[in-house]
Amino acid sequence: MNMAKTKTISPTAQLIFFKSKPKPTNFILQYHQIHIRSPPLRLHNLKISSCSIHSTIPSNPSNRNPRNPKSHHSPLLLPSLHPIKPFVQSQWPQILGGWLCSAISVYCLSKIVPKVGTFSAFLVQIDANRLSIEGLVLGVLFCVRLIANYLQQAFLWSAALRSAYQIRVYVFEKVLERDLGFFERGDGVCSGDVAYRITAEGSDVADTVHALLNTIVPCTMQLVVVGTQMLLISPALSLISALIIPPTCLIIAYLGERLRNISKKAHICVAKLSAHLNEILPSMLLVKANNAELCEGVRFRRLALADLSENLKKKKMKALIPQIIKMIYAGAVLTFCAGSLIIWRGSSNGSNIVSFVTSLFLLIEPIQMREKESGWNPYAFLRLNERIMQDVGKAYNELKQGEPAIDRLFDLTLFSSQIIEEPNAVHPVSVTGDVKFHDISFGYGQNMPLVLDGLNLHIKSGETIALIGPSGGGKTTITKLLLRLYDPLRGSVLIDDVNIRNIQLKSLRKHVGLVSQDVALLSGTVAENIGYQDLIRGIDFVRAEHAAKTANVHEFIKALPRGYDTDIGQRGTILSGGQKQRQEYIELPPILSSFVASVHNDCIAQSVELEYMLVPLWKLEGLIISFHRLAIARAIYQNPSILILDEATSALDSKSELLVRQALERLMRNRTVLVVAHRIETILMADRIVILENGKLEEVTRSSLLNRSNCYSLLPSD
Ligand SMILES: Nc1ncnc2c1ncn2[C@@H]1O[C@H](COP(=O)(O)OP(=O)(O)OP(=O)(O)O)[C@@H](O)[C@H]1O
C-alpha cells in the first residue's frame, strides 16, 4: 500500500479510503493492522478480502480516568507528553535506528575536528604522502557523517510521522465512539475545532515528537554520559557546574511554561478562525440575504486580530527562548571558568582542568576533543556550540508549543459514554420488526424540558406508521431513541419484546435502517455510497445494482461519466464529460454553486462548496431527487426489518415525486416503517397515523386528519 487518502465525509466525521494499486496477494496494512486474506473483495481500488481489525494502539491512553481529563498526567518533567508515550514507544525500531545514526555522526565529527588540525599541520609541512592519506580519511569521515545525518533524519521523521499518524487514528476512532449528543450539542467543541485538532494540531504533534527524538533525547543521553565523566575527573568542579544547572533549568522551565500557555491560546484562536470559516462559507445564502457581508467581515477581522496577537506573542517567545538559553549558556561557561581558575590555582593538575573543560563542552556538543593541542580551534568550537544551542532552543520551542496540541487532541478522547452496551447484549440474526415504545420520557439535558413525556406506541411487524406533529414536537427524537442514539430517561424501547438496551448496538443499527431528510451523500464512488455499510467487508456489486434499480436511480447512475465508479467526491465532474460538451450546463463558481444548491438542499451545498459545479439550473432539482433515490438505494442495500423514513420537507415536481414515491413504496414493502411524514400522500400510504404533540401521541383517522392538516405544515401533493 502506498498511500492513505482521507476524504471528508461530513463536517464531523472522516473516513479513510485507502487508495492503492490492487494487490492480488495477502498483505498487512498498518495501522491499525488490517490483516487481509484472499479471496479478495473490493474497497474502492484496494482489493481486500475478509479482514479482521486488531487495534494495536497501546491500551494506556484509554485507561485514563475519563472523568478527570488531567488524570493521565504523571508528575514527570513533561507530563503533557505522557499520553503520546505508548505511540512513540511503538516506533522503537526507527528511533533506535535514528539514534544509532546520530551516534555514528557524532563519532565521525569527533574524529573530523582533530583531523582538520593534523591535516592543516601537514599542509604547512607540504608532506604530500601524509596529506593524501589524511585527506582520504577526512573525506570518508565526512561522507559517512553526511549519510549518517541523512539516515538519522529519515528514521526519526519516520518515527515522528508514524506516531502522529497513530495518534490521529486513535483520536478519530475515539471521536467516532462518542455519543451523538457530543456532535449535536458540541459540548463546547464545534465540528470545525475537532477537524482542526485532528489535522493541523496532529501535524504539530509530529513536529514535537521529532524535536523530542532528534534533539532532546540524544542530548539527555549525552548529559548523563558526559556528566558522569566530569564527576569522575573532578567532583569539586562538578559541584560548581551542578550549582549552575538548577537555576538554569528553572529559568528554562518558566519560559517553557509561558510558551506553552501562549501556544495554547494561539491554537484556540486559529481553531476559532477555522471553525468560523467552516460555519460561514456554507451559509452564504443567509449572509447575503441578510446583507451581512459587512458584519461578517468585522467578525472575521476580530477573530483574525486575536489570532494575530496570540501568534505574534508566540513567535516573539519562540525567538526569545534560544537567545536566553544562549545567554545562560555563556554566563554558565564564564562562571564555570572563573570557578575552575580559582580551583586550578590551588592545584597543580592542569591537564585535569583541560579534560574537564572539554567534558563541559561535550555536555552540549558531541565532539570528543582528545587531541587538544593539534586540532582544537576555539572559535570553530564556539560556533558549533552556538548552533547546537540554537538547535536545543528550537527543539525546546517545538516541544513547548506541541504540548497544547497534545492536550487538545487527547481531550477529545476523554469522555464517558452514556450509551453503554450491556455485557450480555444479544445479537439477533433477524427480527420480525415488532416495535414498542413503553412509557417513554425524554429530555436532552438535565435542566431541559421534557420532549417526550410518558409516550406509548406499538408498531406491529410489517405495519407503516405515519408520525406527524408540530415542528420541534419531538418526531426526530423518537427515531433517535429507536436507533438508540440516546437512552430515554424513563421507560423502554422494545424490538420483538427485547429491550434495545439488551441488543448489541451494531446489530440494532443493522436491523433498523434510516433514510434521513438530509440526503447524506459521502465522498467516494456511487457504489460506495450505496453499499456504505460494507465498505470494509467489500461491496456486493450485484446487490448494489439491484438496490439502485429498485430505487429508480440505476438510469441516472448509468448516465454518469463512470457509472457506479463515478466519484461523488469530485462534485465538479459528476455532471461534466459528455454533458459538458453538449453545453447543457452552466458553470457555477464554488461559492455560487453552494449558494444555489443551498436554496434546494443544505447537504448539496456542503458538498459542492469546494469545486466548480456544472449544473443546468433546470436540472438541479432532478439532481437532488437522484441523490434522494441514492439514499433510498442505500437503505434497500442494507435491507433492514425496521425502517425509519424522515421525509424531506422540500417540494418536488410531480415527475420526481412519482419516481421517489415508487422507490419508497418498494423500500417499505414487507418492513415495519416509522415515517416522519410531511406530505399528505405519504401519510395516506400509512396503515395508521399518529400525532405527536406536547410529548404525547394521539392516533387519528385519515378523515379527521385532513381537517387539521394545516396545523402541521403538511405539503400538499401535486
Ligand atoms: N441535540 C439536541 N440537544 C438539545 N435539544 C435538542 C436536540 N435535538 C433536538 N432538540 C430539541 O428537542 C425538540 C424536539 O426536536 P425534534 O428534532 O425531535 O423535533 P421534530 O418534531 O423532529 O421537529 P421538525 O419537524 O422541525 O424536524 C426541539 O425543541 C429541539 O430544539
From TrEMBL:
<dbReference type="InterPro" id="IPR003439">
    <property type="entry name" value="ABC_transporter-like_ATP-bd"/>
</dbReference>
<keyword id="KW-0472">Membrane</keyword>
<feature type="domain" description="ABC transporter">
    <location>
        <begin position="435"/>
        <end position="718"/>
    </location>
</feature>
<dbReference type="GO" id="GO:0005524">
    <property type="term" value="F:ATP binding"/>
</dbReference>
<dbReference type="GO" id="GO:0016020">
    <property type="term" value="C:membrane"/>
</dbReference>
<dbReference type="InterPro" id="IPR039421">
    <property type="entry name" value="Type_1_exporter"/>
</dbReference>
<dbReference type="InterPro" id="IPR036640">
    <property type="entry name" value="ABC1_TM_sf"/>
</dbReference>
<dbReference type="GO" id="GO:0140359">
    <property type="term" value="F:ABC-type transporter activity"/>
</dbReference>
<feature type="domain" description="ABC transmembrane type-1">
    <location>
        <begin position="120"/>
        <end position="369"/>
    </location>
</feature>
<protein>
    <recommendedName>
        <fullName>ABC transporter B family member 29, chloroplastic</fullName>
    </recommendedName>
</protein>
<dbReference type="Pfam" id="PF00664">
    <property type="entry name" value="ABC_membrane"/>
</dbReference>
<dbReference type="Pfam" id="PF00005">
    <property type="entry name" value="ABC_tran"/>
</dbReference>
<feature type="transmembrane region" description="Helical">
    <location>
        <begin position="230"/>
        <end position="255"/>
    </location>
</feature>
<keyword id="KW-0067">ATP-binding</keyword>
<keyword id="KW-0812">Transmembrane</keyword>
<dbReference type="InterPro" id="IPR027417">
    <property type="entry name" value="P-loop_NTPase"/>
</dbReference>
<dbReference type="GO" id="GO:0016887">
    <property type="term" value="F:ATP hydrolysis activity"/>
</dbReference>
<dbReference type="InterPro" id="IPR011527">
    <property type="entry name" value="ABC1_TM_dom"/>
</dbReference>
<keyword id="KW-0547">Nucleotide-binding</keyword>
<dbReference type="InterPro" id="IPR003593">
    <property type="entry name" value="AAA+_ATPase"/>
</dbReference>
<feature type="transmembrane region" description="Helical">
    <location>
        <begin position="324"/>
        <end position="344"/>
    </location>
</feature>
<keyword id="KW-1133">Transmembrane helix</keyword>
